[in-house]
Amino acid sequence: MHDFTPISSLAGGALIGLASVWLLAADGRIAGVSTILHGIFSSPQDRWRMAFVAGLLLAGFAWQAAGAPVPLRAGFSPGWAALAGLLVGFGTRMGSGCTSGHGVCGLGRMSLRSLVAVITFMAAGMVSAYVTRHLLGVAS
Amino acid sequence: MSKLASALGAGFLFGIGLWLSGMANPKKVLGFLDVAGDWDASLMFVMGGAVAVTAIAFRFVLKRPKPFFSETFHLPLKKSIDLPLVAGSAIFGIGWGIAGYCPGPALTALSTLSAESMVFVAAMIGGGILHRLTEAR
């Protein structure tokens, strides 16, 4: 198992958790990124969603400005990226959440609904990664 | 104003957490999802660290009468385990396993200006709009 990073992953996870606690304590909102993203389009008058997404983007720029490693991959085709994005966008709306809303926040609230969602998308993700990488030979 | 500033700050902290943890690196995410490859268990620690914090702190937060900058807590109301929940989560998981991006990491990865992140995010927004159109029928 190479690339195993338990310390930075645990620390990064704790920051994600803290950010979610902050958003709930300050603004009374669940930090579910898919729901926030699509809310920008369904209720554009609530500008906090745009502010949250702007914060996500700024973090990426700040991370790179600080000289921290940004792993870019080559050879992942735009067609697969488009198909994957479409599935993620549609699926997270149909299932009312993603890794953050159901995972970080839903599990934190002890929601059975979120537990079912997390088990489902983890399992589907593992099957999908296996099929695309090993059976279809998609370079990623 | 304070509400917007705090949402911006929360998004920023969330984003730094994504980068530090490795979630914003699709290769690392796929290294976790692909259990038949050279399996990397790191992402278990991301979810573990995040949920350890929310599971403890949410209890205290939700005991407060209201949030600092808002009148009420906006919590999900649905409780039922239904077909859209399971089918939607499965569709999401399939896309996640193809690209290694879930919504948060994809958005913060836009900062790299990579073509794959831009195509992915545009399609993800399109997928959400497509779902809204099918719901409206």
Briefly say what this structure is.
The complex is a heterodimer of chains A (140) and B (137). Helix content of chain A is 72%, strand content 0%.
Tell me what you see in this structure:
The complex is a heterodimer of chains A (140) and B (137). Chain A contains 6 helices and no strands. Chain A has helices at 6-27, 33-42, 48-65, 78-94, 99-108, 112-135. In chain A, helix 5 runs antiparallel to helix 6 (112-135). The longest helix of chain A is centred in the C-terminal third of the chain and has 24 residues, at 112-135. Chain A is globular, with a radius of gyration of 17 Å. Chain B has one domain (2-136). Chain B is globular and about 50 Å long. Chains A and B meet through helix 1, helix 2, helix 3, helix 4 and helix 5 of A and helix 1, helix 2, helix 3, helix 4 and helix 5 of B.
* Largest pleated sheet of chain B: none
From the helix content, strand content and strand pairing of chain B, which structural class follows?
mainly alpha
Kindly estimate the percentage of residues of chain A that lie in beta strands according to DSSP.
Answer: under 5%
Would you tell me the overall average pLDDT of chain B? 95
The number of distinct helices of chain B, counting runs of at least 4 residues, comes to 6
Integer-rounded radius of gyration of chain A:
17 Å
The level of helicity of chain B is 55-70%
Mean pLDDT of chain A comes to 94
Query: Strand-and-helix sequence of chain A, N→C?
Result: HHHHHH
- What is the CA–CA distance across the termini of chain B? 38 Å
Tell how many strands the DSSP assignment of chain B holds. Answer: 0
How does the overall form of chain A come out from the CA principal axes? globular
- Uncertain segments of chain B are none
Oligomer: heterodimer
